[in-house]
Amino acid sequence: VMLVVGSGGHPDPSIIARLLGNEDIRFAGDSELEELFPDCDAGAMPPVGTLYGMPVWVDAELARASQITFPTGRRGESVTTSMRDFERLIWPTYATLAAIPTATAP
After folding, report:
1. pTM of the entire structure?
2. 3-state secondary structure of 24
3. Measured at the alpha carbon of residue 44, what is the angle toward residues 40 and 48, in degrees to the nearest 5?
4. Number of H helices and number of E strands within the chain?
5. How far apart are CA 32 and CA 46, in angstroms?
6. pLDDT tens digit string along 90-105?
7. Could you tell me if 56 and 48 are in contact, meaning their C-beta atoms sit under 8 angstroms apart?
8. How far is CA 9 from CA 36, 61, 99, in A?
9. Sign (positive or negative) of CA dihedral 36, 50, 75, 25
10. Residues 32-40: contacts with CB within 8 Å, 24+ apart?
11. Phi-psi domain of 21 (left: phi exceeds 0; alpha: psi -120 through 50; beta: other)
12. How is 30-65 classified by DSSP, letter by letter?
């Protein structure tokens, strides 16, 4: 499963485990990502998992965005598209993937 969160967001493993109904989850390591995305530079994988045979889950916070910007697969290159066009291409599942930060009192 490919997880897509906004910049600065971090998927919460306990939330992901619950959503997938599998307590035994882990995030792929660098060597696994290189195998899964052989045509992409490390760290520049685009959120188009469906093109690589995997479902894409997008953090619900991004559903409110009008546009999405993401890497093209090459370092230093990105593309911006409307969220509507991204949805038409990828058919993502939306869910809360990251823990909601709690406000801290000063």
Report:
1. 0.84
2. coil
3. 75
4. 3, 5
5. 15
6. 999 999 998 765 444 4
7. yes
8. 22, 10, 9
9. negative
10. 37/73, 39/73, 40/73, 40/74
11. left
12. HHHHHHH-TTS-TT---S-GGGGT--EEEEGGGGG-
